[in-house]
Design a protein that fits this description.
Strand content: 25-35%
Helix content: under 10%
Radius of gyration: 42 Å
CATH topology of the domain at 1-186: Leucine-rich repeat, LRR (right-handed beta-alpha superhelix)
CATH class of the domain at 1-186: Alpha Beta
Distance between the termini: 63 Å
CATH architecture of the domain at 1-186: Alpha-Beta Horseshoe
Oligomer: single chain
Structural class: mainly beta
Number of strands: 72
Largest sheet: 8 strands, mixed
Amino acid sequence: MYSYDFSAICETGQTLYYNITDATNHYVELTCPGGAIYNGWSGYSQPTGNIIIPESVQHDDVAYSVTTIGSFAFSRCGGLSSLTLPNTVTSIGSNAFCFCSGLTDSLIIPNSVISIGESAFIYCLGFTNLTLGNSVTEIGYRAFSYCTGLDQIMVDSNNTTYDSRENCNAIIKTSTNELIVGCKNTVILNSVTSIGKGAFMGCSTLTGNLVIPNSVTTIGDYSFDGCSGLTGDLTIPNSVTTLGKFAFANCSGFMGGLTIGNSVTSISRNAFWGCSGLTGNLVIPNTVITIDTSAFNGCTGFTGDLIIPNSVTTIGEFAFNNCTGFNGGLTIGNSVTTIGNGVFWGCSGLTGNIVIPNSVTTIGDFAFDNCTGFTGSLTIGNSVTYLSGFEGCTGLTGNLTIPNTVTYIGMYAFSGCSGLKGSLTIPNSVTSIGHFAFSACSGFTGNLTIGNSVSTIGNSAFQNCSGFTEYLTIGKAVTEIGSDAFYGCFGLSEMIMLGTTPPSLGNYYVFSNTNGCPIYVPYESLYDYNSATKWSSYSNRIYPMAYTTISGYGEDTGNWRFIAFPLAETTTPISVDNMITESNYDLYRFDQSEDAEWRNYKANNFDLENGQGYLYANSEDVNIIFKGTFNEDNTKTVDLVYDANAFFAGWNLVGNPFPINAYTNKSYYTMNEDGTAIEPVAVSMGTAIPVCTGVMVKAENTGESVTFSKTALEGQLANQGVLQIAVAQNTTRGNSVQDKSIVSFNKGDELSKFVFNKDNAILYIPKGCEHYAIACAEKQGEMPLNLVVKENGSYTISVNPKDVEVKYLHLIDNLKGADVDLLDTPNYSFEAKTSDYASRFRLVFSASGNTDDENEEPFAFINNGNIIVTGDYANATLQIVDLTGHVVVSTEVANNTSINGIASGVYVLRLINGENVRTQKIVVH
């Protein structure tokens, strides 16, 4: 199929192609044979030489008037030398004669033409004269752009839309005084108020100085783009309020200064891109609010200082990219909020310090890359959240302080900044460190600390940071460390991993060439690190530690913490990593005496002892790390002091003596969450004291002690009214302590002892320092005991309802169908497998003993989000109804049916079996 209806030979011997546009009135459009595209004449004989387009053409004995020159009709017909348009043509389509570079002499648009499409005559280099007829009312964008030969433009005096007043050699829109087409001899008159979009685009023959009169208020997009012949100074008068994108792009011929009028509020995208000849100081008026993308990209001739005034709020991407001529300081105004990607990339001549004001929130990628001239320090304001863009700034010196507002450090952020020195701390606010962020920053010395909120460390993030000579501390939230992240950090003396779960490693070389320094990991995670993929290659360097995280109090009060000492040997605080810091810290031990209950370490030097507790605070966030020989005993008894004459008689500050969680046989008191006051905590056997944590206990008489244990101590309840449920294995494996878990519901919770939200953990079985099996309950009259075992074997569930007013307490074994009255038989033994339902057990309870009033016997339970209907049924129907009364599912049930895919929520189940209807409320999590 052809892209034209017919062809015919015109009077100059050319074969032209036509489409019928109106069969009734017999109108045709002149088109190109290959369709409306740039290369539409490919494979066809292009018209050459002189061409006279006919007024009409015969086809099937019908005369058709030629009314339209279609889009791309003569595109790239470079062999045409002259053009005659008939008086029948009313429309010239877009790109109709684009790239007809051979057309010469005069171009006459006849009076019949109403519209000229976009780019209609673009790159018609040979025309010297343009005459516009009296009927043209529409001229498309770039219609005569890059017509470099044009030196005379005339508009018919009878045209009411456009004019060429005072022989200005331009086309001006009469109603708006907008100059829309200019040429090399155009004079911009005082009556012109705006220079239109692309008016002089590609007019490289426009030479000499450019004079823009004070009447002009708007310079449109691409107005002078590519006018490379303009020379001298460029002055944007004070009348101009709008400066369009690409307005002076590629005007490389300017050899003088640039003056931007004081009414301009925005320097648009690429406005002066490639104006490499502009020289002298660049003065940005304080009316400018926005400097957009690539506004001055490649303006290599500017010299002196670069001052961004306080009025500017945004500097777009690559705004000053490769402005190599600046040879002074950089001042960034205090209203700038965003420094975009690559803004100052390659501005190698800028010198002195870099100061990022507090107003800036984002520093984009490559923003200051290869700004090698800066020889001072870098100050980053305390509002920056995204930090990047200093790659290759080798001249920057001094310490680098990253404010705690930063959440992300981008790729190559400081790569190659070899002049930065001192310790480096990545604050807790940062969540991610990009690839190569600090690679080859060899000048850093001292410690490298990565905060507790960082989750990912990118590939080669700190590769070849050979200057670090002390600790590397990696925060507890890190889950992924990229390939070669610390390769070549051969100066490090120790590495400290705070996370209990080994992060994934990108390759086997993450910690290679680090001089074999030891890697310390949390005590309870030693096996996990030694056996984890890729970590096992460092097993000969991995050692255990214990630590506690102290949040800094900053300028406020509070954040006191009770800490404890888990090492077997007594030691001085100064030998504990991060405890005695250069920042403000406080360390006290407790004394019952009246004159001074707290003894300050600074004034009363003392050593740290296992089993004792201490009061500590620090103005900054620190991780206090204990390394050495840990207390490996299973229990430790600490003698308590009781002095009847003391002001705080009987009170003792003791602490967890082990490198894992511990339990006590006494009630204890802890510091509140804000670290401002001591608050009592009623303790049962299942309440653990975290690692490195101190507690307050009270002796009532002399000779008392407190016992710490690695497992909960039986028979030592601290309060009354406790429903205690224990799950234990029935056999002891060798000399190990058997796994047991105990959950207590304390008096004071009313009968809502069983009322908990769905996220509240109630029951778990610990094994190998891990927690398994969660039970939770809502106010339903029953509570699931979600049990997961880590090995097949015999287990016993027991109950001790001490001082609890409950008259009905039954354990339901959903797997075996057993219903055990725990008030009558407080122990239930069973065999369990790792493949059992987690929701195998549930408790049914009642304060009154009347379960019929409170909850009908359940016939379904939840397992892994699925509803399991127990029992055998014939021809029974289950309806699942949401809280709006809508039946979500209606299905036949048989033997132990499972219903999957039910969304989280509260539902009513209706089990319909003939005339028998049972209901049950159920919660799907």
